[in-house]
Specification:
single chain, 111 residues, alpha+beta, 4-stranded mixed sheet, two-stranded antiparallel sheet, 3 helices, globular
Length: 111
């Protein structure tokens, strides 16, 4: 799950750190266990057309392909537990913003 709003023009991905490669790297360096913040277009259409890429270190990068057309496929799941997901997303966004204000680990798009 990613979080984005036009007001701060950043993509926040807290799920990336669940990747097995990053989980392993986090044992040696905790920076790999934090959400990833990437500069992103503030305009919604530009954001959806963008393919953000960020270098996490000298050898590792992440990229996103945004697929908003797939959102309706999640409707059956959201119908059953959507309010829980919305609360989690809101909590995640708040936590991510707190972390970004404290640690300022913002990777610019493209390295």
């Amino acid at each position: 799950m990613i979080v984005w709003t036009s007001s701060f023009g950043q993509l926040v991905d807290a799920t990336l750190v669940q990747d097995p490669l990053l989980l392993t790297a986090a044992h040696a360096d905790p920076v790999y266990s934090t959400p990833v913040f990437v500069e992103a277009p503030a305009d919604r259409e530009e954001f959806l057309a963008a393919q953000p890429v960020v270098w996490l270190d000298q050898q590792l990068y992440a990229s996103w392909l945004l697929l908003p057309d797939w959102t309706p496929l999640m409707d059956p799941v959201l119908a059953e537990c959507g309010w829980i997901i919305e609360l989690d997303a809101l909590g995640l966004a708040v936590d991510a913003l707190r972390l970004s204000n404290v640690q300022c680990w913002v990777w610019p798009a493209g390295g």
